[in-house]
Each structure stands twice: as structure tokens, then as C-alpha cells.
Amino acid sequence: MLVSELMLLLAVWMSGWGRSPLQADGAFRIYVNDRPAGQETFSVMRSEGGITWMGRASLELRPLSITIGSFLLTTDAQYHPRYVHVKATVGSSEQEVRTTFVGGKARNEITVGGTTTTKEDVVSPETLVVLSNVPFFVYEVLAHRVDLSRTEPQDLRAYVLPQIELPLTVRVRGRERVSFANRAADLIRLDLALAQPTGQAIAMAMWVDDARRMIKLLIPGPFVIEVYREGYEKAVERATPKAYEALEVTFPSGEIALAGTLTMPKERSQPVPAVVLIAGSGPHERDENIAGVKVFAQIAEHLTSQGFAVLRYDKRGVGRSEGRYDAATTYDFANDAQAAVRFLRTRPEIAPGRIALIGHSEGAIVALLVAAHDPTLAAVVLMAGPATSGEEVVLEQQRYLLRNLPEKEQQERIALQKKILEAAKTDRGWEEIERALPPQARAQLALARSPWFREFIRIRPLALLERVACPILVLQGGKDTQVFPHHAEGFARALTALGKTHVVTVFPALNHLFQKAETGDISEYGKFGTQLDPEFLTVLAAWLREHLGEMPRR
Length: 554
What we know:
Radius of gyration: 25 Å
Strand order of the largest sheet: 8-7-6-5-4-3-2-1-15-14-13-12-11-10-9
Low-confidence stretches: 1-24
Mean pLDDT: 88
Number of helices: 12
CATH topology of the largest domain: Rossmann fold
CATH class of the largest domain: Alpha Beta
């Protein structure tokens, strides 16, 4: 579960300009969590006075759509930024930014929804680069500022339009042989670390050729972003024979159809027990791909190899599922999970009385909502589930993210967060909150004003336990920094007091994704590979075997 700010960075194509004989063109394909999500084109024109970069891009981060109508960046011959002009549409919001870099200052003119404001920031002209998430050609500009012959860290400053200057550390890792779907290439790898105001850092990796053209960019995180230059196609994992069947299925949930994958053991002589996987907050597809870690795909493969049928599905409005994700609440997701259970009970291959739910993060709350109304479920597994209200979870996450800021600033931001929470509960006070935020940050209030957030912050998971009739397994990573380990302790106390059949297991070295970690911070996601911890998978399968019965054998 992650409730955090989404930094949207913008760009523009200036129509009507002539082409230079020194122009070079480029294009990128953009992937988010392994799925095609956008594209970008750009041109470069060089002259005696400097360099002009022009681009346009589109990116789908469902439910949010970002269209970069035009992006203009001018630099001097040494790639120091001079001027940026951006026009973009973020969701339904028209935005325009003009930034001039002069005299150690970035002077911004920002227009959002027809309202124009100005903003001035002190910057470091000698080491400054412009960075953004969209468009991505700005990373190629960055590559021209790096000394590729140096292996020690190189310190720059990145101006994130039109918000803030942040420390940026670049380390040249040397040459790597990189495989693509259509070719392989010897490229130079650069590791980037962009420090955040909270004290954390976003770790990225970029591969460039000898001409410093960016060939590939990787930005790990809850949404793993990969960018590939045209002509270098993303490699696709080759399918290998499996000891199970994987069926593409659809099933109704009210007036919409949800799409998913049902995996079943190939060798079965009678109906098998089944599991429904329920994803956490965010627009997750069926594999629950987080920073390249396919949490649900791995759980499904392991459990199916142990004799269980497993159903995982795209959340409503995501992937191949119908409906609107942006209008859905936790209760809608509970209805979808209940629909998945009903669907399994119609399948002759499934034992209808031996069905369990596994919910991850917010999905654990969804599992409890379903189990509280369905006494026929055989078992429930809560993976990194919050035991407190959504309101308390949001505040806890904010305090963690702000922990490295000065105490006064922490208190101010927490006070603002509390006002946002109160406004979400009462639908009053939004005008005051908007006045306290800069125009470019107001679009980020859309999440706080959504139906999902309003309902999520009210839910109290422990209050649902009394109505759950089946055994409960609580699994928790000891280094989880999204749902902290004390939540497992809260479940343990409540379940013991209620006399419920339960097991609580905390894995000291694991993070929110149930991978081994150093700190557990989200910036580490994907850093230590993409595999889940084997002990976690073993414990999960053994408990399910105990409570769903022995697996049928031929």
C-alpha cells in the first residue's frame, strides 16, 4: 500500500519551427510494469548559439493520462539549461510552464486551469540539469553533462520543473552487454540517485551508447518505468513449459466483467482447493507487478505447483477488466473479490467448500470485508495488512516519509495532512487547503478527494475480525516501511482476545513485497532481484495445505 505524492513533470512541442541541417531525431517507447504505456519523439537542433531540444510524449498511468503537447528546452553548447517551455494535459487539467534560467535563479511562470502564478528558485548554474519523468529525452541531455571516463561519483543538481532543485549523484559503472528482443549492444551504464526532500533517494539506471544517446532507462518504484529507444526492442521473457494450466478467464461483477488468469494443477483426479489473490491499493494488474517484482504471479506459480488452483485478476478499470478504477472504493473491490469466489464455485474443477482468500496490503482489508459476510470461506491470509484505520495508516506513512526533514517542517506538513484527512471525511475545507498549496500541487488533491480515499480512511480492520468464521494467517515483513510490523502485533492481540483460530508470522528480514531487504524502504524495491523469499512461500503453502486439506493425487 502506498499513499504518496505523484510528481508530474511536463513538456512541449513548439509547432511551426523550421528544421536545421544539424538536426537529429529520436523516439522512445515507454513501459510501466512491463506493459506498453506511452511513446515519445524529439528533435535536436544545434547552432552557434547553443542547442534546442523539442519533444512531445504521451503516458498512461491509469487512471491518469498525461499528454505532453510540446516541450522546448534550450541549452548552451555545454548543455547548461537556459529556457524551458512546457504545455501539457494532466488528466483534464491544462498546464503550461515557462522557466528561464539566469543569474543563478529559475524564474517560473506557471499556468494551471487558466490561472497564472510566478515562482522563483535559487539554482546552481554550473552543475544544473533539468529532469522530469515525462518527457525522458532530458536524461539524454544529462548524459552529455557526465564525464564518462570518471568512475568516482559525480555531483550535479537537478531542477525538477517547476518545483525544486535536488542533489543528483551520477556514477559511471562502465560497459555492459545489454540484450534486447531484436539485438544486443555494448553500452555504458550510468547509475543515478536523485535525492528527495524527505531524505530518501530515487535510484535509476541509464544505458547510453558512445554518442551518449540514451538507449534504455530504468526507474524502479511502485510503478517500474522502462524507456527504450526506437530500434532497441524490450526483451520479452520466453515461456517455459509449466506443470500447470493457465487459463484466461472472465467473470461478472455486477454490471462489469473482470479478466484474470486461473492456474490449475495439470494432474488432478478430483476437484482441487482454490485461492483468490486480492491486490493492494493502486491500479494493479493481475500479477501485482511492483518495481518489477511480480508478487502475485510468483505466489500463483508456487501454490499451483503445490496442488492449489489460483485465481488472480486485473482490478476493475485496469488491464483487460471493465469498469472505472478512479470511481471505485474498497467496498467495490470487496464486491469484485466476492464475485471471484462465486466464479470459482461454478467451476467443476474447484472444490467449492475449500476456497481461501489471500489479500496483500489493502487487499488484506478487502479479504476481511468479504470473509465477514461469507462464513463458507475456508481460510483467509493477510499479507502485510494494516490493523489500524486508513486514516492512521496515512499519517504513519507520512511521518516516515518526512522523518529526515527539520522538526518544524515535519509538524507543518503533518498538520496539512490532518486537514486533508478531515476535509476528506467531511467534504469541507478544500478551499483553504487549495490556497495553502502551490498551483502545480493542487492536482495532487484528486486522490484525497476520490471516493476510494474517503471510504478507505474510515475502515477499521480489527472491527471486522469478530464476524470472520474461518482460520486466519497473518504474514508480515519485519522491515516493511509501508505497513509497519506493529500491525501484525495488533492483529495478534485482537485475534487472541476473540479466541479466533490464527497464526501470526513475522519474517524479520523481509520488506512489504516479502523480499529480503536492507532497510525496507520503497527505494530498494527491485534492487535485490525480483524473486520472493522462498521461506515466505513455503510457510504460506504449508498453512494453506493444513487448512484446505490434503491435495488430491492421481
